[in-house]
Amino acid sequence: MTSTSYPQDGQDWRGRFIYNLTAALSRLPGLQLDLWxxxxxxxxxxxxVATSADRNWLQLLSQRGGIAxxxxxxxxxxxxxAMGLLxxxxxxxxxxxxxxxxxxxxxxxxxxxxxxxPAVISVLGTDFGLLRLPGMATLLHRVLRQRRAVLAPNAxxxxxxxxxRFGDVARVxxxxxxxxxxxxxxxxxxxxxxRPKRWLxxxxxxxxKIGDLFDWGSGLxxxxxxxxxxxxxxxxxxxxDWVHYHGPTHPAALLQDWIPEACGLITLSRHxxxxxxxxxEMMAAGLPVIASDLPAHRDIIDNRRTGFLADSPQTFALALxxxxxxxxxxxxxxxARLWVRETCxxxxxxxxxxxxxxxxxxxxx
Length: 365
Fold this sequence. Notes:
By secondary structure, this protein is of the alpha/beta class. It is built from 16 helices and 12 strands.
């Protein structure tokens, strides 16, 4: 498995879903997993196949926010980093024989050029930005037709476009990521009487991730209603004085100190979302979500049943008011938890879905 993101330790938020998937795969009998990724604690039975030079380079790239973050600043630096990544992956794919390679992010499949190794390629929402670059879809098409491959987007809404572009050279099958069991075990509580209503935002702080939040939220958050913002500052944003900013956080802190008594999660992102993991985790915890009306959010939220979609300041204000009604909040939260349990399941369920693909590709290689 290859990934350019991986948590350095138990408190690191970066690439947490890669660790969770890796740990779940490591528990499957008969599967030997080697990982090429930034340095971090590995689950039992998983081997690192990145060289020390690769690990150091990946760690530095991660500390700089990754290639996507570099693109928001210095284009030459981002291009240089991208070329370095492709060269290192090119060597890694040839250094160690493997039955099937699991690639996370489409760009990491480009260095497979010239090999015939079967591949499962996880496609995330940010990959659709990559496909808009001139010639990128053509390059990927040529790489895919050299092997048996499965494109595995983590959301159904991505399937039609991927089939249109690559259906003649690869199988396209959505594979939802799983959810850690601890989210399903959260017990929601009624906020103490007389305390302000608390709303949460958990996101990387960029203009695209914040979206219309500061504009639409102006005047709605006051002494009786509070907005608490968690996440790393990745762009220089001016925060309104009504925002309570807490910086980066860890799931354990959210689970223990914030989620049980919060009214809900807000995400008004305009980012290229796939199936945002933080939204799914909050839904699994029974926490209602108010989300911008994006394809990624429509894919997981049945408006006014498992959450609320907002496409204007008026619908946003209405969603806040409705979800501050205890009965509505509990009903929507319960419906959201049930949908995530039945649709996504746990990381062990996700690992089993990927393992079926590995077996299918290895049998037909």
